[in-house]
Amino acid sequence: MGSQSTNSSSPSNPLSLRTLFKQLQNSVVQITSKPPNPQSPNTSTWGSGFVYDNKGYIVTNSHVLGGADGNKYTANVIPDDIYNDIAVLQIAQNASKPLKPLVLGNSSEVGVGDTVIAIGNPFGLSDTMTTDIVSGIDRSVPYGGYLIPDAIQTDAAINPGNSGGPLLDTRGEMIGMNTAILSGTNAFSGIGFAILSNTITKIVPILIQKGYYPHGTYGATMGAGRVGKRQCWRC
Question: Which of 51, 4, 8, 48 is nearest to 158 (CA)?
Answer without folding.
Answer: 48
